[in-house]
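Cont'd.
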Amino acid sequence: MVGIGILAVLAIAAAIGVITARQPVHSALYLVGNLLSLALLYLDLQAEFLAVAQVIVYAGAIMVLFLFVVTLLTAGKEDREPPEDLAGQRAWAGIVSIIVGIVLVALAIKYPGAELKVALPANFGNLQGIGRLLWGPDFIYLVGIAIMLLSAALGVLVLNPPKRERQIERQLAAAARAREAAAGAAVPKAESTNGKEGQGA
Amino acid sequence: MIYINWVVALAAILFTVGAIGVMFRRNPLIMFMASEMMWNAAALVFIAYAREFHDMNGQVMAFLIMGTAAAEVGIGLAIIVSVYHKRHRLDIDEISRMKG
């Protein structure tokens, strides 16, 4: 029970860190802490396979993807939140979400389910148990996940299509022209600074 | 001995924190991470009740949530990257109209 309390405090602290961190990188690291403490909680709830899958899929794959995108988009940039356009949106959102949170927590504490007193079935939560379900009665969910992941991969390819050769050539030509223009602009500038130096000397 | 209602209360708190993050922040990356926390809170409820009712179908649902979150992160980050390449700003209002 004490262990669960510590894990819960860690998870909540990391969650608050995610939404209050100034930089997205710090948010991502706090989210890793949140996911790992939840994985330990899963282990305590006898969901071995899901605890391991949480560490591998979330902390391993999804967070690495997040960190790639964060470093790609926000590297070395001052990241300040722009002002809110909708007047009063934050105040109302805060009020409503805190009320919803209090109601949810109160409901969760007030109506405890009756815990079954019989022993857990064999293979509860381990790889064998979940594999028997996924390849047996719940096979449709496994197929659904497979189709969903495949269509997500196709969707990513459609959203960011690989560039055609002609586009790349055009971009290279534009870059070369820009470089020439910059060089042309830089030469008189260099001369003028030389002149200044000469004057100073 | 685990008191399931406290675990569900923890999930409710995490869900609320995630919802506050989605509504308060303007950076789409941080909003995305907050929505990941909301997915995780739902998975935690499924796993808690699977433990309480001795029924592993809840764990299968949590597995489904994990797969859905993976697919969603791929698509969402692709949208964020392509919008950023067009506008060069990380602000959620840039995506408000979903128009190229």
